[in-house]
Amino acid sequence: MSTLVFGHKNPDTDSVSSAIALSYLKQQIGFNTTPCVLGNVSRESQYVLDYFQLPKPKNISNVKVQVKDLQYDFADGISPKKSILYTYNLMESKSLQTVGIVDNDNELLGIISMKNIAMGIIEGDFSYLETSLENLINDLNGKVLSGDKSFFSGKVSVIAYYYKTIQGLLSEKDIVIVGDRYDIIEHAIMSKVQLIIITGGSEIPQKYMDLAKENNITMISVPKDTYYISKVINMCNFNSRIMKTDNIIKFNEMEYLDDVKEELNNSQFRNYPVIDNNNRFLGFINRKHIINPTRKQIILVDHNEYSQSAEGLEEAEILEIVDHHKIGDIATSMPINFRNNPVGSTCTIIHSMFKEYNIEIPFEIAGALISGILSDTLLFKSPTTTDIDKKAVEELNQILELDINQFSMDMFKYGTSLEGQSIEEIFYKDFKEFQLETFKVGVSQVFTLDIDDVYNRKDLFVNYIKKVEKRMEYDITLLLITDILKEGSYLLYQSKHSNIIPIAFNIAEEQGAFAEGVVSRKKQVIPKLLKAIQIIK
User: Could you tell me which residues come within 8 angstroms of residue 334 by beta carbon, excluding any fewer than 6 positions away?
Assistant: First the structure.
């Protein structure tokens, strides 16, 4: 199972780049990892991916336990054209209670359980046989004496009478079981029956075999006596005769464990088929498989709070966290590697990890790392910037040889363009939820070089913020429109305490007021809000 490496919801460039880079690093030291994102990547992140020709990380919506994560009983399906006896012997030898019946493409057609076989023998009408020559030869240890017919479908007759007694009773629809009664054999041949099964293994005179060949009658010899063959002939029928096809409870491998549990609790079957999205049979699941499910293994980057992470995180096994934010509320049952450094970017931390492991950084990974640092530090203008960030960029650029200022401005310009985006899309581009003491707070931040585009829609943004606050029951809902060049943010907000934003940022009590120098949500906005909350309490 591959370990998933991902950042926070509404991923920014640092989150995307750190997932890619850390996943690469882990792979180099022997781990099976997959970089992922929680949602669509931003325009800025896409610019970076395109610029350095990096594949987009896998998009995941949650890390809940799915059927595919369980160690269920993987199994091969059986053809509906195999015999019931073949299936029974297979189930007996492998201690199977249920088998899947599949077509040539492995699509699930039905199931057969030991109960189906037993009830089929007890209740089924097996005076009519549907099977293949291959099944009969294998099941009855027979050998072909004449004929080339491959499939049979007809009434079974065990002949113990004098041949004159059955005159006119046999036809081309019949399948005859008989011992070394040559008069019956000859009569059956001349009646053009489908198949003659000669029991006892005795040598048959050549003239009867020649007669059968002349009339194109299939004739086989089996070693067992007539009594035994008459008992097992019904087991030579195709599986399709007894397989269950209606009301089968089956689970897609992508279904979630919670949904499976509910279904299992409301049904009485022992085993349930597992299929993929194309109805291909994969195996069986039963109640024992959900007792101790195998959880998804994950590594978190650029966040360590449940509200910012993937849905179902509590069902996953967190192996490691690499972050540069405040320590949040994520808890683990076992000790893990938790790396949390006060630098401007998670990519800075991962760059140092490459150095510690003495792993060479390829061009495209260096590009991802430098982009994450430049983005999160706003080209070193953010107060979160440290000398470690600047040193990391300097070392990475020895690999890349970029014009740092030009690359950054091109990245920001492309990434901050809001053209064609709705109010909702802009608001949730980079949105995070926080719990500040008793206050539930939602903070969105938009970096843009096109402030006028937002300001022209100021009233629409304010109305949308009000709706978000009401729907999510936030105490504070804030949108920061950060001007990278002016190094400050315009604030649009809704709060249950009308003066809390002006107090926090020392601005006029009006929508769209400019908070000079405020560019970091982590290092400036959250601490200022927390301090203001403590003041008004």
Answer: none
Backbone angles phi, psi at 230, to 5 degrees: -65, -25
- What does the pLDDT read at residue 453? 79
Nearest Cα to Cα of residue 448 among 417, 426, 420, 427: 417
Beta-carbon-side half-sphere exposure of residue 106 (alpha carbons within 13 Å) = 13
Give pLDDT tens digits for 15-47.
999 999 999 999 999 999 999 999 889 889 999
pTM over 0.70: no
472 SS3 class:
helix
Does the pLDDT value for residue 516 go beyond 90?
yes
Rg from Cα positions in the chain: 36
User: What are the angstrom distances between the C-alpha of 423 and each of 397, 426, 472, 513?
Assistant: 37, 5, 17, 19
Looking at this protein, which amino acid is placed at residue 99? V
- pLDDT, tens digit, 9 for 90 and up, residues 343-378: 999 999 999 999 999 999 999 999 999 999 999 999
Other Cβ atoms closer than 10 A to 35: 27
- What integer best gives the mean pLDDT of the chain? 91
Four-point Cα dihedral 9, 13, 15, 17, nearest 10: 140
Query: Residue 430 in contact with residue 308, Cβ under 8 Å?
Result: no
User: Could you give the domains of the chain?
Assistant: 3-65+296-415 (3.90.1640.10), 69-124+241-290 (3.10.580.10), 128-236 (3.40.1390.20), 423-536 (3.10.310.20)
Start-to-end CA span in the chain (Å): 49
User: Beta-carbon neighbour count of residue 436 at 10 Å?
Assistant: 17
| DSSP bridge pairs for 492 | 479
pLDDT at position 10: 86
Structure tokens given for 166: 């059955």
Q: What is the pLDDT of residues 445-483, one digit of tens each?
A: 998 887 887 888 899 999 999 999 999 999 999 999 998
Token pair for residue 19? Answer: 């997932």
Q: Are 479 and 461 in contact (CB under 8 A)?
A: yes
